[in-house]
Amino acid sequence: MSQSNSTQQTVKYVNPAKMLRIKDVMEKLGIARATIYDWLNTKSPRYDPTFPIQRRLGTKSVGWLESELDDWINNRPMSI
Q: Among 4, 5, 52, 72, which residue's Cβ finds the most Cβ atoms within 10 Å?
């Protein structure tokens, strides 16, 4: 007689990372394209080292992880 050990596996589904293109980022933040690139440009007086970096999606396209943008938004100081 053979004895079998059965184990239950819990499957956890994780939401896949959502990438936002520049127009989506502009809409989400309510800012212009130039502002985003100013925040990314280390030579700009508007440079923001805390702003999420863009990720290369292909040879001619970039995007931002929505979760990183959400974290950045949530960690910004409240305006008075």
A: 52
Which pTM value belongs to this model?
A: 0.74
Token reading at 42: 């280390």
User: How many folded domains does the chain comprise?
Assistant: 1
| Residues forming beta bridges with residue 62, ordered by sequence position | 56
Is residue 9 assigned to a domain?
A: no
Give the structural domain span for 38. 19-74
Cα separation values, 33 from 2, 7, 12, 26, 40, Å: 67, 53, 37, 6, 11
Collapsing DSSP to helix, strand or coil, 45 comes out as coil
3 part of a folded domain: no
